């Protein structure tokens, strides 16, 4: 039997066992035990009996057996799933924000590009612009110039590249205006091959920017660029 | 006495949680869906609060003005 005041810290079905209430640890001493009932005079016996009567359990064992475990489990799984979803979302957002923090800002990226209006460069003329501190030659080539660039035999070239390899859109040539010899800026529409001529040490480049004569070892470098036909612009970078 | 993991009423849930792999997969998929929904809703709230003040609104207005 348990003490005259029922326990509230356990489910009632465990409280209603035949085991006496015990102190959980040996070093604990009860100053007042529920089992110790104050003495009651004999003439008050009936009153004492009603006062100390153990109330009937409000939960029967068969009620405990009929608890719907399935809906409990469903609820638990749904809660676990919902918080896991939130956690996955937060973790992804955290990683994305951290990585985007490492990449270059939009203003830095914008400075690293140069845009050219194609309508400002008529056929057969050059445009010299600055891209990332380097000169860039843009030329709107005529049909004869394209044919001339295509007609060159690869065996004549020091750095063997066809014109179509260099410029997918052969109407426009875009290349860095830096001589591959020692980095001077070549002069346009001059030299023995009708292209560029470097006055520093006499390198001759043809209309495709390929080295033909002189000390330079390589063709003029081509920067990454995009031709946007719809907007009529060339974006370098 | 209750025996199995799920009865027929909860079979729909059981499909997603019975195997840990299916549970994880459904969490990943629902996280993706939640992200899309969350972004859409928050973007819409932002656009509503800042209606007429954003570049896309200004751009439309400027283009309309330059056409006239």
UniProtKB/TrEMBL annotation, chain A:
As for membrane topology, the entry says: Single-pass membrane protein
EC numbers listed for it are 7.1.1.8
- One Gene Ontology molecular-function label: quinol-cytochrome-c reductase activity
* UniProt cross-references to InterPro entries, sorted A to Z: bc1_Rieske_TM_sf, Rieske_2Fe-2S, Rieske_2Fe-2S_sf, Rieske_Fe-S_prot, Rieske_Fe-S_prot_C, Rieske_TM, Ubiquinol_cyt_c_Rdtase_Fe-S-su
Coiled-coil portions? none
Q: Which cofactor does it need?
A: [2Fe-2S] cluster
UniProt cross-references to Pfam families, sorted A to Z: Rieske, UCR_TM
Family of this protein: Belongs to the Rieske iron-sulfur protein family.
Protein name as catalogued: Cytochrome b-c1 complex subunit Rieske, mitochondrial
TrEMBL record, chain B:
Kindly list the GO CC terms recorded for this protein: mitochondrial inner membrane; respiratory chain complex III
Query: Which InterPro entries does the UniProt record give?
Result: QCR9, QCR9_sf
Instruction: Tell me, in a sentence or two, what this protein's role is.
Output: Component of the ubiquinol-cytochrome c oxidoreductase, a multisubunit transmembrane complex that is part of the mitochondrial electron transport chain which drives oxidative phosphorylation. The complex plays an important role in the uptake of multiple carbon sources present in different host niches.
Spell out the protein name for this chain: Complex III subunit 9
* Species the sequence originates in: Caulochytrium protostelioides
Which Pfam family name is an example for this entry?
Answer: UCR_UQCRX_QCR9
According to the record's subunit comment, the protein's assembly and interactions are:
Component of the ubiquinol-cytochrome c oxidoreductase (cytochrome b-c1 complex, complex III, CIII), a multisubunit enzyme composed of 3 respiratory subunits cytochrome b, cytochrome c1 and Rieske protein, 2 core protein subunits, and additional low-molecular weight protein subunits.
Which family is this sequence assigned to?
A: Belongs to the UQCR10/QCR9 family.
Q: Which PANTHER family match?
A: CYTOCHROME B-C1 COMPLEX SUBUNIT 9, UBIQUINOL-CYTOCHROME C REDUCTASE COMPLEX, SUBUNIT X
Question: What are the protein's UniProt keywords?
Answer: Electron transport, Membrane, Mitochondrion, Mitochondrion inner membrane, Respiratory chain, Transmembrane, Transmembrane helix, Transport
State the annotated membrane topology for this chain. Answer: Single-pass membrane protein
- List the subcellular locations: Mitochondrion inner membrane
Q: Which GO terms describe its biological process?
A: mitochondrial electron transport, ubiquinol to cytochrome c
């Amino acid at each position: 039997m348990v003490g005259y005041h029922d326990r509230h810290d356990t489910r009632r079905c465990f409280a209603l066992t035949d085991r006496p209430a015990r102190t959980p640890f040996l070093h604990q001493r009860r100053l007042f035990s529920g089992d110790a009932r104050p003495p009651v005079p004999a003439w008050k016996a009936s009153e004492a009996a009603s006062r100390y009567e153990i109330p009937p359990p409000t939960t029967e064992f068969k009620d405990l057996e009929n608890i719907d475990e399935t809906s409990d489990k469903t609820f638990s799984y749904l809660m676990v799933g919902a918080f896991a979803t939130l956690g996955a979302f937060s973790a992804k957002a955290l990683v994305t924000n951290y990585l985007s923090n490492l990449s270059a800002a939009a203003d830095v990226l914008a400075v690293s590009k140069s845009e050219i209006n194609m309508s400002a460069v008529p056929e057969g003329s050059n445009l010299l612009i600055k891209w990332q501190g380097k000169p860039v030659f843009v030329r709107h080539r005529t049909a004869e110039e394209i044919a001339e660039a295509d007609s060159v035999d690869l065996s004549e070239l020091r750095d063997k590249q066809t014109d179509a390899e260099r410029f997918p859109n052969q109407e426009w040539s875009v290349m860095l205006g830096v001589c591959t010899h020692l980095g001077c800026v070549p002069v346009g529409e001059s030299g023995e091959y009708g292209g560029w001529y470097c006055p520093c040490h006499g390198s001759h480049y043809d209309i495709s920017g390929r080295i033909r004569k002189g000390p330079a070892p390589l063709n003029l470098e081509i920067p990454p660029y995009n031709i946007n036909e719809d907007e009529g612009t060339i974006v370098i970078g | 006495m209750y025996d199995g993991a799920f009865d027929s009423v909860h079979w729909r849930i059981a499909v997603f949680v019975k195997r840990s792999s299916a549970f994880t997969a459904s969490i990943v998929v629902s996280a993706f869906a939640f992200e899309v929904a969350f972004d859409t809703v928050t973007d819409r709230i932002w656009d509503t609060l800042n209606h007429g003040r954003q570049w896309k609104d200004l751009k439309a207005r400027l283009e309309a003005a330059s056409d006239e």
